[in-house]
Each structure stands twice: as C-alpha cells, then as structure tokens.
Specification:
mainly beta
C-alpha cells in the first residue's frame, strides 16, 4: 500500500499530460503525451525514465542512459509491455524484469 501511495505522489507531479497510468504495490508506469516520455517504478522504490512508442496495445520502452551505475536499464528492465484493457492490467512480454500492474488511467488515442 505504501508503494502505491508513493507512485500516486509521483503521478501528482506538475506534468499534466499523462495519457496512461498503471500501478500496484511494486510496479507502476506513467506515459506522458509530451515527448512520449515515461516514468517506471520497479521493485517498489526504484524509478527509471525514458521514451516509449505505442503500437496497438503494446508499449515499447527505451530507457535514458546512465540512470544506474550498477546495470544498463535497457538490458535488465522490461522493454515491451502488453496492455490488456479487457482485464484492466498490463504485463511485460519479454524475458527481462517481470512487470505487471492494474490500469488506473487510459487516455490513449
């Protein structure tokens, strides 16, 4: 619950161009319309940013460089997320980090 609140606080940042939000206790993602940027919460407290591309119900992520010294985000974190609107969930579709969350906002065009 605490981490969901943390992500909710992150989602209340001044950026007003949010088009998609999904979150749970450990994971969350916010897609911004402007510059096609995203914020990703993983493992309950780590935050990563980058750009995304949408193709149908799939989100393709590319992380900005040099966010973590320990590893390359583009090699470790999920880069492909399926949006399941029927069940109100998202989940990773590649062999990288597992990612799943509940859809809270969907304003995609």
């Amino acid at each position: 619950m605490f981490f969901s609140l943390l992500f909710l606080v992150m989602s209340c940042m001044p950026r007003s161009n949010k088009i998609f939000i999904a979150s749970d206790e450990l994971y969350g993602i916010i897609l911004y319309e402007r510059k096609q940027e995203f914020q990703l919460l993983f493992n309950g407290f780590n935050n990563a940013t980058g750009t995304y591309a949408l193709s149908g119900d799939t989100i393709y992520l590319t992380y900005f460089d040099n966010q973590f010294n320990e590893f390359d985000l583009n090699q470790k974190l999920t880069r492909k997320i399926l949006i399941d609107t029927k069940n109100g969930k998202v989940q990773s579709m590649d062999d990288r980090m597992r990612f799943c969350a509940n859809i809270a906002l969907d304003r995609r065009k």
